[in-house]
Amino acid sequence: NIETSQDVELGDLVELYKAAKKRFDADDDFKARAREGVVKLQAGNKEELAAWEALCAASRVEYQKIYDMLNIKGLIERGESFYNPFLNDVVEDLEKQGLAVKSEGATAVFLDGYENRDGTP
């Protein structure tokens, strides 16, 4: 049963995320199901899309409060996939400048002064 965005509080989403992350790290079966869910979402599965849209709508309610305080109007919302055609050029530019490096199989930018809890960049 998918709740509507009106039924979901941002604090609940934060708690859900924290609990899911903890379980994802500790439970291989849950991790596999979570990854399958992402594949279904990316494939456009109706149920996963409905859940994602409800989460996004609940987030938008909170973002809008901030936009209103900052008097931001006419904002065009674009999902992450909007930027995919631009990524290769951006990564190439960052690499040329020596800002992007390979790390654990990914290309990453490490900013001076920022580090993980374990002290790594």
Q: In terms of per-residue confidence, which ranges show pLDDT below 50 for 5 or more consecutive residues? A: none
- What is the C-alpha radius of gyration, as a whole number of Å? 18 Å
How much helix, percentage-wise, in residues? 55-70%
As a percent range, the share of strand residues is: 5-15%
The overall pLDDT, averaged over residues, is: 87
Output the number of helix runs: 4
Task: Report the count of strand segments.
Answer: 2
**What class, by secondary structure content?**
mainly alpha
Order of helices and strands: HHHHEE
Question: Largest sheet, order of strands side by side?
Answer: 1-2
3D architecture notes:
This protein is mainly alpha-helical. Helices cover 57% and strands 7% of the residues. It has helices spanning 10-26, 28-42, 46-69, 84-96; strands at residues 100-103, 106-109. The chain has a two-stranded antiparallel ribbon with strand order 1-2. Helix 1 (10-26) crosses helix 2 and helix 2 (28-42) packs across helix 3. The mean pLDDT is 87.
